[in-house]
Design goal:
This protein has 391 residues and is of the alpha/beta class. 35% of the residues lie in helices and 9% in strands. The protein is globular, with a radius of gyration of 20 Å.
Length: 391
């Protein structure tokens, strides 16, 4: 890494609170920052304090009528439309302000990269990738990922690659740029046949004039570290090398973990760490080192998210944490007060083997079928041979 990386954080991010019984509990952010701090990952790092995004900035991807609905929702009650007031997207106090701050955090990270102050920047509170132009969806009110990409397109960049490794399809970002050939959206997710939102098939290629700019790799339930990494390696790097992005934007949801209560993939914290290392390498190899990393899903709040995203922060900062590092006693004591009967891990690893056999063209497993389906759909549009594993 060249310039110092930027970390965007402020405790006010915890105001994005959909309720104590909601899966997207902000305690996961608090525990992540506490763990990263306890392990020294943030030592000497001047945290970037975000400012709320303006209405005009949010309206880069959202309709003004939707912003008005979000702003009015806490006073209007539950029947406000636009996907608000549902079990997934309940209305909460200061909803617009909290959501605008998340967008502002991702914009602050984008500005650090565009200004040249940093080659890398991270906002773990971001990654709300399901929000649509006129409605909330999947716990997401405003789509900070899409707003940040839109801003980058107007501030010095005309080729941006977005890689989404959340277990759910990155549908909101795909929708925002489906017709824009300047943005390559890549989503690696659990098959839409078995998981909400039911989109993200290989045949979703991009709109007219942007054919091939939308990439979807849909993996079968039960896919673990080695198979996930094999599939990613067999599809994504070659597309990035052809596309030649100027900046890599990644949504780093960790609901792919085997303990996540809302999905059915079987990755580990070690698999997540391997993904972050690969994203860092790809940013260096294909995007001149520019990498904007965002958070995302992840609903095992104590055992998984804090460890995985501490590894993300460490990876962005080039302060890689030894997976065998014990969890600090003070952090464990604090986490235990939140869920006294919930067993906590003892270290920063799940003791999983992430070494994988590269794809060689065979079709022996359901994951191999997914690899070939995506390659056959996308590779010819980029001048690559879907049957040749060297591509």
């Amino acid at each position: 890494m060249g310039k110092a990386a930027a970390v965007v954080w402020d405790e006010s991010f915890l105001g994005y609170d959909l309720g104590s019984d909601h899966p997207l509990n902000p305690v996961r952010l608090d525990l992540t920052i506490r763990l990263a701090t306890a392990l020294g990952v943030l030592d000497g790092v001047d945290l970037v304090t975000p400012e709320p995004a303006t209405d005009a900035e949010i309206e880069r991807v959202h309709e003004p009528s939707y912003l008005s609905a979000v702003q009015a929702a806490p006073m209007a009650g539950w029947d406000v439309g636009h996907g608000l007031g549902t079990a997934d997207n309940p209305v909460f106090a200061r909803m617009h302000e909290a959501s605008a701050l998340v967008v502002g955090g991702s914009l602050a990270a984008a500005r650090k990269i565009a200004s040249g102050e940093a080659d890398r920047a991270v906002n773990i509170a971001g990654g709300l990738h399901h929000a649509m132009p006129d409605h909330a969806a999947g716990f997401c009110v405003y789509n900070d990922c899409a707003v940040a990409i839109s801003w980058l397109l107007d501030n010095g960049f005309d080729r941006i690659a977005y890689i989404d490794v959340d277990v759910h399809h990155g549908d909101g970002v795909q929708t925002a740029f489906y017709d824009d050939p300047r943005v390559l959206t890549v989503s690696v997710h659990q098959s839409p046949l078995s998981l909400w939102p039911g989109t993200g098939r290989a045949a979703e290629l991009g709109g007219k004039g942007a054919e091939g700019a939308s990439v979807n790799l849909a993996l079968p339930p039960g896919t673990g570290d080695q198979a996930w990494l094999r599939a990613f390696d067999a599809t994504v790097p070659a597309l990035l090398k052809v596309f030649r992005p100027q900046v890599l934007v990644t949504q780093c949801g960790v609901d792919t973990h085997r303990e996540d209560p809302l999905a059915d993939l079987a990755l580990t914290v070690d698999g997540h760490r391997a993904i972050y290392y690969r994203l860092r390498e790809l940013a260096e190899e294909t995007a001149n080192g520019r990498w904007l990393a965002l958070g995302g899903g992840g609903y095992e709040l104590l055992r998984v998210v804090p460890r995985s995203w501490t590894h993300l922060l460490a990876t962005v900062l080039d302060r890689d944490v030894d997976p065998n590092t014990p969890l600090p006693a003070d952090w464990v004591a604090h986490a235990s007060t939140i869920a006294p009967n919930w067993p906590l891990p003892s270290s920063m690893t799940d003791s999983a083997d992430t070494e994988f056999l590269p794809w060689g063209g065979q079709v022996d497993t359901p994951v191999d079928l997914a690899i070939l389906e995506t390659r056959r759909a996308l590779y010819p549009l980029h001048g690559l041979d879907p049957e040749d594993p060297r591509d």
